[in-house]
Amino acid sequence: MELKPRDPDWEVRVRTSFNAQNFMTHLGAELVHLAPGAVDIELKMQDTLTQQHGFFHAGATSSVADSAAGYAALSLFAASTGVLTSEYKINLLNPARQPVLIARGRVVKPGRTLTIAKSDVIGVEDGAEVHVATGLFTLVSVPGMKD
Amino acid sequence: MELKPRDPDWEVRVRTSFNAQNFMTHLGAELVHLAPGAVDIELKMQDTLTQQHGFFHAGATSSVADSAAGYAALSLFAASTGVLTSEYKINLLNPARQPVLIARGRVVKPGRTLTIAKSDVIGVEDGAEVHVATGLFTLVSVPGMKD
Amino acid sequence: MELKPRDPDWEVRVRTSFNAQNFMTHLGAELVHLAPGAVDIELKMQDTLTQQHGFFHAGATSSVADSAAGYAALSLFAASTGVLTSEYKINLLNPARQPVLIARGRVVKPGRTLTIAKSDVIGVEDGAEVHVATGLFTLVSVPGMKD
Amino acid sequence: MELKPRDPDWEVRVRTSFNAQNFMTHLGAELVHLAPGAVDIELKMQDTLTQQHGFFHAGATSSVADSAAGYAALSLFAASTGVLTSEYKINLLNPARQPVLIARGRVVKPGRTLTIAKSDVIGVEDGAEVHVATGLFTLVSVPGMKD
């Protein structure tokens, strides 16, 4: 499936919106890859992000998975529309205790109103990859909402 | 359905584990209600928690929903077992732009290995409540994992 | 939350559409309760509906849960719109081996385009109720689609 | 990820169990592909399987998706354990109005107790494939349950 942006300024728009997400800054997340329908977000382990066993909190893992899916969707939206997450489901597959997480958001089915995306979160340690989480997301395109 | 804790120290155990979740501290979340199979977590709006439109980020909303569900489950677990989230699904029902969110985690079906819980997130503004999100969570009881 | 039908003919419309679902007939499902935003569907145990252990197949349980949620949503839709299930998640809580299942679909959040509903499936045996499944559903209102 | 069966009789076991699912027979579903961690199930369009617009009912689509995921999991289980679906989530991506559906169940993360699988449902018409649905499933291995 070839995914085509409808907004020629899609790249600036996604980066501007990501930078406006204070929560991503608060976590320390970075947008490390951007293509039409595909966004990768990286999160380095820090003490502030842990649950009681010292792993990444499921909420931190899910937050980057959600932003990666949301921006993968936004990269394909028409100009002058904003993105909201309607719902998602995530399976936490392995303990997230690697030094770096990468959330790979990919559009599965683009649409005018609803876009379905998946997000796979990979933990990276010493060059090896662990599949930490996989999720499915429904994103809504909201006309007139600045993003 | 009557829910009975199997560990007489359930209350101390849940509070200790919650306090050990650095991520909850980083968000500014507080445990405000605790009963067998029921945990409420409160999150006050701060600039650090927003997405690009100034609402609570879906990741912040989900994080407190997840912790509320997880601790509702842990409150019923046997001693010397830890809790991990296996998977969850959440629907974001209304924009989360109220000054305060309360995530109400409630056990739906307790079990020795798997416990199913729901979490409803309410936004509170001027005494009025808005149903911000609803989710279903599968929590796993892990023997020998300190919580 | 008070739920008001937008179509004065909502009741006839839901019953007509349910009767047009051949799959519900094939399963032997019956619409046993109908109110604005609330639909109950009953399914009696038959040999044709079982999985390998003789319980109701998860697919049969989910099918009535889905129809109950979908018709709870349709009962609130404007005239001349149809209903499609966009996505759902279901947790199977207890073995479905009772003589009768009742799926109770209830609208959680009505909307012009997206409606969120839940569905709880109850197994009934000798007057006792077992909570067999609980699910969350996103239903889409499709203008111009006859239902 | 290489997936290895733990039971040398995995193939006979999966086929025997599938044939014992009366519900699959009632739908007209056929097991058309079987490998360790991978099962395809085919469902031909029939009048008995439709919703009110003449498409496959979401419940029929989900039923074959669930069985494909469940048997992909069972193919990797130890002998003398049975499989139950704990929960799943499915997104219906495109109208299911093709003459044939194929549900492709694939194990994402095998485990002793919990196995996570995905299932993609493809509609086939005149040699062209349409992505009809995608879902994530949690399967439980139940010791001592004959499958």
UniProtKB/TrEMBL annotation, chains A, B, C, D:
Instruction: State the CDD domains in the record.
Output: PaaI_thioesterase (cd03443)
Family annotation (InterPro entries): ACOT13 (IPR039298), HotDog_dom_sf (IPR029069), PAAI_dom (IPR003736), Thioestr_dom (IPR006683)
Key word Kinase present in the record? no
Q: Residue ranges of the Thioesterase domain? A: 53-116
Transmembrane segment boundaries:
none
Query: Do you know which Gene3D superfamilies this protein is assigned to?
Result: Hotdog Thioesterase (3.10.129.10)
Keywords on this record? Hydrolase
Concerning its family, UniProt says:
Belongs to the thioesterase PaaI family.
**NCBIfam families registered for this protein in UniProt:** unchar_dom_1
Q: What is this protein called?
A: Uncharacterized domain 1-containing protein
Biological classification of the source: Bacteria, Pseudomonadati, Pseudomonadota, Alphaproteobacteria, Hyphomicrobiales
